């Protein structure tokens, strides 16, 4: 696996200087460093590990990010049983320096949680996407805590939201989708905070309908946010007071 250059990421010292210069002298003062980092990112491979439990939709998510169907040539293999037995890399078609790594599922008989965290060698990756489905689980917390311990960043993705809402509609005459989505998001945030993640970034998605929920927002964040975040925040740097 290609290793990314540390220089492509904004250090805490650089981040503090950016904020200070911006507050003192405005956008013009920070533009040179931002442009320098963008140029470095253009020449640096970013390795994104997609992890989570088996069946959470990791491979389907990678195919959706690459705008492929599961039966297209070069697509990640998907199925009703565990199909990913070792980390497998997939290049992004429009971001040639971005490589998604489809990791095996945590918590299976082949990869129980403790063995998984030892064998997956998270230090090799620049950024993580934790894919979860149904309720927040103990393994989700273990993954988030390990990534945080390593000083790396991640997005938490709650997949199969369309299935959740569809199931609710079968059991209730009427549901408020916005309220249900907010409940799911808040539950994820609360559990991640309890796992020691102060400001988690949570996205609710359906990999089969990218125009619903947070999928397009997640794609934009991956394009603009990775490489410009500081450990613990899991989000792009902010140069305003918001």
Notes on the structure:
The protein is α/β, with parallel strands linked by helices. 40% of the residues lie in helices and 13% in strands. The chain contains 8 helices and 6 strands, in the order H-H-E-H-E-E-H-E-H-E-H-H-E-H. Strands 2-3-1-4-5-6 form a 6-stranded mixed β-sheet, sandwiched between helices. Strand 2 (88-91) and strand 3 form a beta hairpin. Helix 1 (12-25) packs antiparallel against helix 2 (27-42). The longest helix is centred in the last third of the chain and has 18 residues, at 177-194. The protein starts with 11 loop residues before the first helix and ends in a 17-residue tail after the last helix. The model is unreliable at 1-8 and 227-242 (pLDDT under 50).
What key phrases describe this protein's structure?
242 residues; alpha/beta; six-stranded mixed beta sheet; 8 helices; 40% helix; globular; disordered N terminus; disordered C terminus
Global Rg: 18 Å
Number of strands: 6
Question: Average pLDDT across residues?
Answer: 79
Question: Per DSSP, what share of the residues sits in E-state strands of 2 or more residues?
Answer: 5-15%
Strand order of the largest sheet: 2-3-1-4-5-6
- What characterizes the major β-sheet? 6 strands, mixed
Put the structure in a nutshell:
The chain has 242 residues and is α/β, with parallel strands linked by helices. It contains eight helices and six strands; from the N terminus they run H-H-E-H-E-E-H-E-H-E-H-H-E-H.
Protein topology:
Layout: H1 12-25, H2 27-42, E1 46-52, H3 58-65, E2 88-91, E3 98-102, H4 113-119, E4 127-132, H5 138-149, E5 153-158, H6 161-171, H7 177-194, E6 202-204, H8 215-225
């Amino acid at each position: 696996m290609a290793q990314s250059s540390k220089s492509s990421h904004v250090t805490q010292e650089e981040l503090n200087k950016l904020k200070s210069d911006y507050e003192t002298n405005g956008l013009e003062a920070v533009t040179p460093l931002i442009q320098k980092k963008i140029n470095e990112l253009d020449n640096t491979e970013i390795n994104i590990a997609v992890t989570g439990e088996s069946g959470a939709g990791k491979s389907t998510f990678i195919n959706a990010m690459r705008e492929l169907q599961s039966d297209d040539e070069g697509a990640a293999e998907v199925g009703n049983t565990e199909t990913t037995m070792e980390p497998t890399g997939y290049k992004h078609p429009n971001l040639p320096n971005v490589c998604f790594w489809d990791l095996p599922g945590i918590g299976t008989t082949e990869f129980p949680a403790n063995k998984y965290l030892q064998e997956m060698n998270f230090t090799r990756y620049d950024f993580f996407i934790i894919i979860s489905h149904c309720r927040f689980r103990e393994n989700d917390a273990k993954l988030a805590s390990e990534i945080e311990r390593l000083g790396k960043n991640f997005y938490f993705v709650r997949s199969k939201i369309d299935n959740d809402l569809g199931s609710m509609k079968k059991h209730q005459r009427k549901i408020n989708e916005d309220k249900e989505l907010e409940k799911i998001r808040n539950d994820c945030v609360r559990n991640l905070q309890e796992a020691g993640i102060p400001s988690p970034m949570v996205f609710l998605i359906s990999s089969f309908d990218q125009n619903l929920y947070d999928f397009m927002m997640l794609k934009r964040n991956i394009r603009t946010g990775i490489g410009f975040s500081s450990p613990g925040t899991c989000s792009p740097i902010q140069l305003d007071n918001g």
